[in-house]
Amino acid sequence: MTTGSNKPKSRYLQYLEIVTGSLDEKKRWRQYKARVKQLPDDYRTAVEALERYLMHFGPADGAGAMAMFEDLADLFEQSVADGTPIRDVFGEDPVEFVEAFVANYPIGQYRARERNRFTSAIARAAGENTATEERTDR
Fold first, then answer.
1. For residue range 6-54, what is the model confidence (pLDDT) as tens digits?
2. Which domain of life is it from (predicted)?
C-alpha cells in the first residue's frame, strides 16, 4: 500500500484501512459532500434524496459508488450552471431517471445479478433452453 506521494503506508495506516476501509475513498466522499453542500438549496435537496435512494439500490462497492456519486455531483453542478430546472433533470418519473442513471454503473449491482439469476431460473423451470445464454447463477 502506498500513499498519494508513493511512500509506503505505515503499518498503522494499513491496519486502520483494514478496519475502516480505504482512506482515499473516505477523502473522495468528503469532497463529494462538500460539492453537494455548495449547490443551491433545491438542488441540494434533490441530490440528497437521490443519494439516499442510491445508498439502498446503487452499486455496493466503494469505487463504483464513488464514481457514481461524483458523476451525480457533476450532473447537478452543470445543471445549476446551465439553469436547468430540477424537473428537467429528472423528467416526469424520478424512479425511471435513477434506474437509467444506476444502469451506467454495473460494478457491485447485486440487483442486476439477481434479476439475471431469477430470469434464468424461471426459463429453466419452464423448460426453455438457456444453454446459449450467459449463466449468472453459479
1. 667 777 666 666 665 566 778 888 999 999 999 999 999 999 999 888 8
2. Bacteria
- Measured in whole angstroms, the distance separating CA 107 from the mean position of its chain's CA atoms is 8
* Cβ 38 vs Cβ 31: under 8 Å: no
The CATH code for residues 26-107 is 1.10.1900.10
Sort residue 127 into left (φ over 0), alpha (ψ -120 to 50) or beta: left
pLDDT in tens, 32-45: 999 999 999 999 99
Largest CA distance in the chain: 58
Residue 124, amino acid: R
Unique residue bearing C-alpha cell 416526469: 92
Give phi and psi for 10, each to the nearest 5. Answer: -65, 160
Distance of alpha carbon 18 from alpha carbon 13, whole angstroms: 9
Tell me how far apart the alpha carbons of residues 73 and 36 are, in angstroms, rounded to a whole number.
6
